[in-house]
Amino acid sequence: MYLDKGKKMSEETKKRGLKPVYIEAFDLDDAWFQCLSKILEEGYVYKIDRGSYAGQRRLEFDFITLHVKNPAHQIIPVMPEGSSIPAPTSMEYINQYLQYLLTSTKTETEDYTYGERLVDPKVKIETEIDGKKMIKEMPLKCNQVEEVIKIYKKDGFGTNQAIMEIGMPSDLKLTDPPCLRLIDTRVRYGKLHFFLYFRSWDLWGGFPSNLGGLELVKQYMAAEIGVGSGEIVACSKGLHLYEYAWDLAKQRTRKLDLDIK
Q1: Which CATH number fits domain 2-253: 3.20.20.100, 3.30.572.10, 3.40.50.300, 3.30.1360.120?
Q2: Three-state SS across 159-174?
Q3: Could you say which of 69, 130, 213, 254 has the lowest number of CB atoms within 10 Å?
Q4: What are phi and psi of 38, to 5 degrees?
Q5: How far is Cα 123 from Cα 146, in angstroms, rounded to an integer?
Q6: Which backbone phi and psi does 67 adopt, to 5 degrees?
Q7: Is 23 within 8 Å of 66 (Cβ atoms)?
Q8: Is the sign of the CA dihedral 109, 52, 29, 114 positive or negative?
């Protein structure tokens, strides 16, 4: 791994170019394990200047592409028998998370949810009335999940237009903009496949639940379209491991002697 010391960066680090990583996994459990193992060996250590856990350190890939061939086989990570390592998620949680992805329900403290962006996206418009700033939400009236299903059922599978977007330009102004930005889709070889992009992605706490929930969304859409549920290809320039999870990752991958400075 490489340590970023800010302005006092070592000559070795200055000479280093980006090192994209490619991982091919059998199922989601295998994908999570391989990512944990690889990031401990090749991750880049730096202090967070802006974002979640600002001031703390992260271990992060420069860029990763992950190909999961059988995501439905084992959706949640399997902890070793007798292990004291806390499981990062459960099927009960993922089934609850599925509702978060397929409905627009959000609390008053939430700027957005993935589900809102997918099934009932809204644009926030700032206006001023009598000197008071008001924020109004304008619905876009586009359920992206149902529209993609409709495209494939009505027009066939030979298209590159069936993409669902989470991100909006105005997200740059949010304190916590969405991590998941795009869910691209393709029906090929008789199955629906997902292609995902995460701008930032918590490997320990987010990855297992995110991919588990999105796998269930894919299964739902595939059934509606009338095809099989296929593979997942995900990429990110921000797949990371927060410092609190370094020891947990070393325990799970049995790399206890590995030193992260």
Answers
A1: 3.30.572.10
A2: CCCCEEECCCHHHHHC
A3: 130
A4: -70, -40
A5: 19
A6: -115, 115
A7: yes
A8: positive
Helix, strand or coil for residue 86?
A: coil
- pLDDT tens, the chain, 261 aa long: 555 555 456 676 677 799 999 999 999 999 999 999 999 999 999 999 988 788 989 999 999 999 999 999 999 999 999 889 999 999 999 999 998 999 999 888 888 999 999 999 999 887 777 777 777 889 999 999 999 999 999 999 999 999 999 999 999 989 999 999 999 999 999 999 999 999 999 999 999 999 999 999 999 999 999 999 999 999 999 999 999 999 999 999 999 888 887
Burial 138-171 (b: 16+ CB within 10 A, else e): eeeeebbbeebbebbeeeebeeeebebebbbeeb
Round to whole Å and give the CA distance between 254 and 4: 26
* Contact criterion met (CB below 8 Å) for 67 and 24: yes
**What is the DSSP code string of 25-53?**
ESSHHHHHHHHHHHHHHH-EEEE-SSSTT
- Length of the chain in residues, anyone? 261
